[in-house]
Design a protein that fits this description.
about 280 residues; Spore Coat Polysaccharide Biosynthesis Protein SpsA, Chain A; 2 domains; eight-stranded mixed beta sheet; two-stranded antiparallel sheet; 8 helices; about 25% strand; globular
Length: about 280
């Protein structure tokens, strides 16, 4: 393939894959960060009823020089891993970049992605940083490197695919060179820590069931030690206390999430006679 550099005023030979459902509050900023960079926008929607699709379809009206091909796939939610794999396999440009619907790119990352495409990089990681009330948290969950950019020929050959256990999906490549890109993904995952706690319950319930299905069992020991370990990791090892009050709250929500997961794991080990069958629902 050619190593010629792309015109900075035109999109790179790049597809962006996004999965979404009712993300009108965040996806607009994500799409705007893609303007001028991407040639193809692949969106997999799982039943949005808000303005999410209006924002996606508005990309079809961008100026011709930066207008991407918009590929919209509608499907039931298949789980984090399977739905993201569907989006990735629908990408047809030379490179594919996977973004969540709450992950806008910084201008520096946009430049790094374009450069990686120009160099025909095989795969690349990006660092994701949480934005809380307009401020980037420089220590909580940092660094958080995620593989997000891959060549689509690796996807076609089965050498790049989404793996992991729901909801902790991860893009993986086999025996390929992976580089790190400058710039950040801005993670707009929660407006308040109250909302974060509510999201934690949903995600940790999925995580517990995924782990249980993979053969992992709960234990009283993990129930006691994991929350404290999660808090210590964020506040002390990551230095989240330097992010101020938000850092302490991050440690608290991390601890709460660990507690929730191990409570549910313990409960799944011994279902009671009145528990509903997960396949058929309540009797």
């Amino acid at each position: 393939m050619s190593d010629a550099r792309s015109n900075p005023d035109q999109p790179a030979d790049l597809s962006v894959a996004i999965v979404c459902r009712n993300n009108a509050d965040t996806i607009g900023r994500v799409l705007e960060s893609c303007r001028g960079l991407v040639a193809q926008l692949v969106v997999v929607d799982s039943g949005s009823t808000d303005a999410t699709m209006d924002l996606v379809n508005a990309c079809r009206g961008w100026p011709a020089a930066v207008r991407p091909e918009v590929v919209l796939l509608e499907t039931e939610w298949r789980g984090h891993v399977a739905t993201k794999q569907l989006a990735l396999r629908a990408c047809t440009r030379r490179h594919a970049l996977a973004l969540d619907s709450d992950e806008p790119m910084t201008p520096e990352l946009v430049r790094s992605v374009r450069d990686a495409c120009d160099r025909n990089a095989e795969a690349a990681r990006v660092n994701r940083i949480v934005e809380y009330r307009g401020r980037l948290l420089e220590h909580c969950w940092q660094p958080e490197w995620r593989l997000r950019l891959v060549r689509t020929d690796l996807v076609a050959d089965g050498r790049a695919e989404w793996g992991g256990l729901d909801p902790h999906d991860k893009l993986e490549v086999r025996d390929e060179r992976v580089e790190d890109l400058d710039g950040n993904l801005i993670h707009e995952s929660f407006p308040t820590f109250e909302r974060h706690l509510a999201n934690q319950l949903k995600l940790q319930a999925v995580a517990a069931r995924s782990n249980h299905g993979a053969g992992k069992r709960g234990s009283a020991f993990r129930l006691v030690t994991s929350p404290a370990g999660a808090f210590f990791k964020q506040v002390v090892m990551k230095g989240a206390w330097r992010d101020g009050r938000a850092g302490w709250l991050a440690g608290g929500t991390a601890a709460a999430g660990a507690l929730m997961k191990h409570m549910i794991l313990l409960e799944l080990d011994e279902p009671g006679p009145a528990d509903p069958d997960p396949k058929t629902g309540p009797k």
